Amino acid sequence: MAWRESYEIGVEEIDCQHRQLLVKLNEFFDACSNQQGREKIEETLKFLKDYTIEHFGSEEGLMNGIHFPELADHQKEHAEFVKTVLELEEQVKAKGVSVLTTIKLNRTLTDWLLNHINKCDRLIGEYMAQRKLQA
């Protein structure tokens, strides 16, 4: 997947973190295309755990600072994503890497990029632009 301007929310720190996620997503997709998804899944899950701590902390701090009215809903979505990543990690630890876990991670990442970032995170940028707020 290529980065598109439409993914930008207008907050450089957040947009930069989203671009990092897309790079990792593409690395994972490439590995899957080359039948190496199994080798890449543990690395990708570790990245996601670290990424969610940093990125969600930044994003939620920003939303809190600007009094974003949908903060609580956004936090729930973040918590669900973290839960999914942790469940996948537990599956890998308990049962090893399978085609099913690889497919699930692939689908989770794609859905997150297309739906959460492109729809939910965009609302943060729109809210800030409407109120002429700076990050």
TrEMBL record:
Family that this chain belongs to: Belongs to the hemerythrin family.
Protein name: Hemerythrin
Any one Gene Ontology molecular-function term assigned to this protein's record: metal ion binding
Keywords: Iron, Metal-binding
Pfam families (UniProt xref): Hemerythrin (PF01814)
Source domain of life: Bacteria
Domain Hemerythrin-like: 10-123
NCBIfam families in the record: bact_hemeryth, hemeryth_dom
Originating species: Paenibacillus stellifer
Keyword Metal-binding: yes
PANTHER family with a match to the protein in the record: BACTERIOHEMERYTHRIN (PTHR37164)
UniProt entry tagged with the keyword Cell division: no
